[in-house]
Design brief:
heterodimer; A: 83 residues; alpha+beta; SH3 type barrels; seven-stranded mixed beta sheet; 2 helices; globular; B: 640 residues; Rossmann fold
Chain lengths: 83, 640
């Protein structure tokens, strides 16, 4: 796992496969935020991008809890992470 | 221990007494081990509960425990009780729990929590605490923890939350006693949780103590899953493997269809041989043998397909692969308003729409599921093939095999294209609404519990027989009446008349309907004979060939379609012109591509949506579009 080196805010979708960051902001609706929270994706949690789906498909993520998720790219674009 | 399916008697806290029904409701995240626990508690003696306004499958069983009768209800897997629209699983669960309270039941919630990763489950606990029902936690997968040398501190969790907590394994026989006692004790006290907010992550970490060996075991499990994912989710190979696997599933459904059809034919002939002579009057015998037994044969034909499909889908879901499939194809189907889970039902629809409609249960979003149900009838099912073949060989024989082959393939492609377009249109109109972009758990690969998978298949078969089977039988009987009973004013056909079958159908109610429709259907080139064929083939599309055969005086047209093809080509009208043209054949093909010309599909839609509304809507829009296309094709074709 490579951690994002600089400390600037980046979209989760901008991380390459094998890169990880800590979730810093969720620019989501209340419903989307509640849904992600129920899945264990919330501010302060570390997420590693395992792979990107082909042709703009979802991201395959592993959280620091060990749980893995597929997350639509359009949501991942609005999840900001820091290295 | 015993379990009962008798819902007729009012089970109460005390049998025969007047206390409110004691109800244990299992609630938990998908893959938390809820189905296994439900089977353990009820002995799998379950039926799908009939709860007003609830369209998803909610299982209910009645069990005896410590001399009292208790209902056990299994809600769909939930990630959260918040968010989600009213028709989502979350919305249904909320409404369902309010309904139980309004019904006056005494309810205790049992949260099924995966003890191997408690933190995510405890987020749901936090929401359940606010509902005002007594709540206990059954922490599952105790056997897995033990095997991995990990320790789950149930006492600590119970103290932190002020709730009853028990670590169990669904495989252990003692689990039933432990969970029911825990639940009924909480119900007895009647106290709802009082715990204030807590941090699920901190609490989850504090109750799960990892053994020294666990890090290594987890690392190995993660490596195993990662190795498999490298292949199964690879950018090129992943989708290819998925499509191959799904094609194998499609093939399996297709493969069992023929032997099942032959077997049901043999069975029905044997039964007809036995009971046929009981009925002296030929008309009554024909009704029983062709109408009722014919319908029963149709039902039996579908049964193995339903079982195979359910088995494979449950295996894929329980193994963790289905979530990978969704990951791979979600992007492609999202564009037309369907998610990745819609792929499997749409593909299966090419074998048969009936099991495919049942397979839409894997789609969690209710609007996406309804959309998939509404467009599955457009996929080119195997029952269309005999009619396609007949029309292609009867009217396009002179164009050569390459042309016919290309036309045949284009009919398949047209079905898929129409389905995708229809999906995109429906999602912007009748099934429009907000859907959450894909968020799906990718569980580690694991070996499915075959007993649970087997029971799901058996439940699917029973429900099919009960719900779809009865509708098919009724529709089959009605079709027999239409095709065999003389229309008012028509003379009855003497049984010994030459061409009795042809005369009977020509004088039938269906023929009268066909003639009445002719002024309109002429626009598409369909005369009353074609209309009767369409009425007859509503029982099953492949019956089009047989019905046209009877009208054209060809015995056993199913076994010798080429004879019928020649007969259709040679038919002339009163002016000596060919009665049917290639333009009419093309129009009929266009109609068959789109129209939901199948009573079994209509019955399946009614069953899955729990309403005639969507079944009739499907009939309405596919017939209207099918006929409009047929008219366009005929009018254009006639001018070329």
């Amino acid at each position: 796992m490579r951690t994002v080196l600089n400390n600037e805010l980046r979209a989760l979708s901008a991380l390459g496969a094998g890169e990880s960051g800590v979730i810093a902001e969720l620019a989501l609706t209340a419903e989307e935020r509640a849904w992600l929270d129920a899945m264990g994706v919330s501010v302060g949690r570390a997420a590693e991008v395992l792979r990107h789906g082909v042709w703009g498909g979802p991201l395959h993520l592993r959280m620091d809890s060990g749980a893995e998720f597929a997350l639509a790219r359009e949501l991942a674009e609005r999840v900001k992470v820091r290295g | 221990m015993s379990a009962h399916r008798d819902h007729g008697r009012g089970a109460t806290g005390r049998e025969g007494g007047v206390e409110a029904r004691e109800t244990v409701v299992l609630v938990g995240r998908p893959n938390a081990g809820k189905s296994s626990l439900y089977n353990r508690l009820t002995g799998a003696q379950a039926k799908v509960g009939n709860f007003p306004g609830v369209t998803v499958e909610v299982l209910e069983g009645r069990v005896e425990h410590a001399g009292r009768f208790v209902y056990v209800i299994d809600l769909p897997g939930l990630y959260s009780l918040e968010g989600g629209d009213a028709e989502s699983d979350e919305g249904v669960a909320r409404r369902f729990l309010s309904g139980l309270r309004a019904e006056g039941r005494r309810v205790v919630l049992v949260q099924v929590l995966d003890a191997t990763c408690p933190a995510v489950g405890l987020r749901l606990t936090r929401e359940l605490c606010g509902l005002g029902f007594p709540l206990v936690i059954a922490a599952t997968r105790g056997d897995v923890l033990e095997a991995e040398g990990r320790h789950f501190d149930a006492t600590r969790l119970a103290d932190a939350l002020g709730l009853g907590v028990r670590l169990v394994s669904a495989r252990a026989a003692s689990t039933r006693e432990a969970v029911l006692s825990l639940a009924l004790d909480a119900l007895g006290s009647g106290a709802a949780p009082t715990v204030a907010g807590f941090d699920p992550d901190a609490l989850g970490s504090s109750v799960l103590r990892e053994a020294d060996t666990v890090a290594e075991a987890q690392r190995r499990a993660r490596q195993r899953s990662a190795r498999l994912d490298r292949w199964l989710l690879a950018p090129v190979w992943g989708p290819v493997l998925f499509v191959l696997l799904m094609s194998a599933l499609f093939g399996a459904v297709f493969y069992v269809a023929d032997p099942a059809s032959a077997l049901s034919d043999r069975m029905m002939r044997a039964v007809a041989g036995v009971i046929g002579p009981w009925f002296g009057a030929p008309r009554v015998r024909s009704f029983v043998v062709d109408g009722v037994l014919g319908g029963a044969g149709t039902v039996i034909t579908f049964l193995p397909q339903i079982v195979v499909l359910t088995l494979v889908m449950e295996l894929l879901d329980a193994s963790g692969y289905l979530a990978r499939g969704v990951f791979l194809v979600d992007r492609f189907l999202r564009g037309v308003g369907l998610g990745g889970r819609g792929f499997v039902p749409l593909l299966t629809g090419h074998a048969c729409a009936v099991p495919a409609i049942a397979a839409t249960r894997i789609i969690r979003n209710p609007r996406e599921r309804l959309t998939a149900i509404l467009v599955i009838p457009l996929m080119t099912c195997s029952a269309r093939v005999p009619t396609y073949s007949l029309l292609l060989s009867a009217f396009f024989a002179s164009r050569g095999p390459v042309f016919r082959g290309a036309l045949f393939v284009s009919l398949y492609v047209a079905g898929v294209a129409m389905g995708l377009v229809a999906s995109a249109v429906l999602r912007r109109t009748v099934t429009r609404g907000k859907t959450l972009p894909l968020v799906i758990e990718m569980p580690a690969y694991h070996r499915p519990e075959l007993r649970v998978v087997g029971r799901a298949a058996s439940r699917a078969a029973k429900n099919f027989l009960k719900d779809v089977g009865t509708t098919i039988l009724a529709a089959s009987a009605v079709l027999w009446v239409l095709l065999n009973v003389p229309a008012p004013g028509s003379a009855a056909v003497p049984p010994d008349a030459e061409n009795a079958a042809q005369l009977r159908i020509e004088r039938s109610v269906a023929a009268a309907m066909g003639r009445a429709l002719e002024p309109v259907t002429r626009l598409a080139g369909f005369d009353w004979r074609i209309n009767v064929g369409l009425i007859g083939s509503f029982g099953a599309r492949e019956l089009m060939v047989g019905t046209l055969g009877v009208i054209s005086g060809v015995e056993d047209a199913d076994d010798a379609p080429e004879t019928l093809a020649v007969r259709l080509q040679g038919q002339r009208d009163a002016q000596g012109r060919p009665r049917y043209s290639p333009a009419m054949a093309a129009a009929l093909l266009a109609f068959f591509v789109v129209a939901c010309q199948c009573m079994s599909t209509v019955a399946a839609i009614k069953r899955e949506t729990r309403s005639w509304r969507w079944a009739l809507f499907t009939l309405g829009w596919t017939y209207a579009l099918g006929f409009a296309l047929a008219v366009a094709v005929y009018q254009l074709g006639s001018r070329l």
